[in-house]
Amino acid sequence: VFVCVCVCVPFTNDHPRPELLLAHIAMSFRVVRQSKFRHVFGTAAKKEKGWDGIRISRNAWDSPFCSVNPLFLAVVQEAQGGGSFTVVNLDKPGRVDLNAPKVCGHTAAVLDLQFCPFNDYVIASCGEDCTVKVWEIPEGGLKTNLTEPVVDLLGHQRRVGIVEWHPTAENILASAGFDYMIFIWNIGTGEQVRALDMHTDTIYCMSWSYDGSRLATTSKDKILRVIDPRSGEVLGQAKSHEGTKGARVAWTGEDNKLFTTGSSRMSERQYAVWDPENLDKPLKTENIDTSSGILFIYYDDDTKMVYLAGKGDGNVRYYELTQESPYVHYLTEFKTSSPQRGLGMLPKRGLDVGSCEVARFYKLHPKGFIEPISFTVPRKSTMFQADIFPDTKEDAAVLSAEEWIAGETRQPNKVSLKDGYVQPERAALETSAVKKEVKEEGGPPKGEKELIKAWHAHEKEIKDLKAQLATAQISIRTLEKKADA
Q1: CA-atom Rg of the chain in angstroms
Q2: Cα gap 371→153, rounded to integer Å
Q3: Count of CA atoms in the C-beta half-sphere (13 A) of 65
Q4: I need a labelling partner for 273 at 20 to 30 A (CA). Which of 2, 145, 440, 442 fits?
């Protein structure tokens, strides 16, 4: 709906410059697009509502380094000699002790993690140790260090940078590694379901379709792909963004569009909208700015709003998506002076519906502070606002892993938030997977980090052997003296 506002100016033939008068009349027309979300504003929480003292990972991999659900917030930590992440309770903000319990089963840096959409106590992680691990958080949160995963998934030959849970099927998880492979796993059995090998370079991002029947990916070869994850067939591909910055992709839910971010040949950050059925050319492309950080995409299917947050930026831009051209409408941005290392978006079921909160992010500051940011629609009424809170996706799977593998596809169920979200009873993660032993492989170390690690290990081994030799020599001399006597 568009509203045209015009200003009536009397026109007289004796005006000294009639062309200026006409120009003034033309400029008096204002076209204002009506939207429920035009006035959405962001508010940062007070410092006591955040978490401080967390050593957030400084890894160069372009990951948000966090995941959040209505119960917990998980953050990848900077760790020496291994990889770990911490899990804090959302209802217990404050300073986190340096020796607070962690999840520390990885032997190298953690690169990505994501909570299961159907069980708030289950989280998947991956890292530079070439493994994918699935963990179960104890009731009430971590009390001691968690070192044993429920499932250990082995198969990638190089480090693993992305994990992504299936949106409708239970126990289905996708992982992407630097071996250019995407593996689809069945967590219930710990087995690999499919191996997708169509990529020729590093995979930057992947996103499931709304019903989980397709998978979209972006990679370093600058190609956007739409894949059938069950058959391994590439349904469509296109040259996406021409720049060298890492491209991201998000499937826009029921609207069935692809939203990508990347950069132009002149290194200008930009976004594009695509029709997954026809990737010949984007429906819309628009430049944003010339900053250097990659743009993370956070899409809300209920409000049709997309939030763009650049790594290293201090602002969050948000847009509204429509099915008609021009498809994307800029709303405004939330600005701060402090940069962000990553953001975690809270699922809709965890929001404060009574205060018209339509989104909440958890911002990772470089100095170890995590700050909640709420985005709210200004409304005077305290009644439930059904127009800005339509039925949202239920946190329950509609397919079993076996049904999805067999080829079934179903739309997710929806629930109303009118009476508030009710947390379901905790369900334990059931799996028949047998824990596999990680076997040490021979051969030279790969990369500088492994070489340095191996050198330190050898130095320690040599030092220990020298100490043992010295002890043995003393014992030998003592025995020789006794023998001579």
Answers
A1: 27
A2: 33
A3: 27
A4: 2
Q: What is the rounded distance in angstroms from the CA atom of residue 420 to the CA atom of residue 413?
A: 17
- How far is Cα 187 from Cα 431, in angstroms, rounded to an integer? 7
User: Residue 462: what pLDDT?
Assistant: 84
- Inter-CA distances, 485 with 208, 473, 474, Å: 82, 18, 17
pLDDT, tens digit (0-9, with 9 covering 90-100), for 374-414 = 999 998 877 888 889 999 999 999 999 999 999 999 999 99
- Token couple for 226: 């739409």
Q: How many CA atoms does the CB half-sphere of 25 hold within 13 Å? A: 10
Q: Which residue has the tokens 């959302």?
A: 90
Report the chain's mean pLDDT, rounded to a whole number. Answer: 88
Give me the residues paired with residue 41 across strands: 376
Residue with tokens 């899990």: 87
- Give the Cβ contact number of residue 409 at 10 Å: 16
User: In this structure, are residues 429 and 134 in contact, taking their beta carbons and an 8 Å threshold?
Assistant: yes
* Dihedral-angle region of residue 416 (phi above 0 means left; psi in -120 to 50 means alpha; beta otherwise): beta
Determine the Cα–Cα distance for residues 124 and 134; give it in Å rounded to an integer.
4
Q: What is the pLDDT of residue 98?
A: 87
Q: pTM of the full predicted structure?
A: 0.82
In contact, 115 and 69? CB cutoff 8 Å: yes
Residues 161, 184: Cα–Cα separation, whole Å: 14
Grade residue 1 by pLDDT with cuts at 50, 70 and 90: very low
Backbone angles phi, psi at 451, to 5 degrees: -65, -45
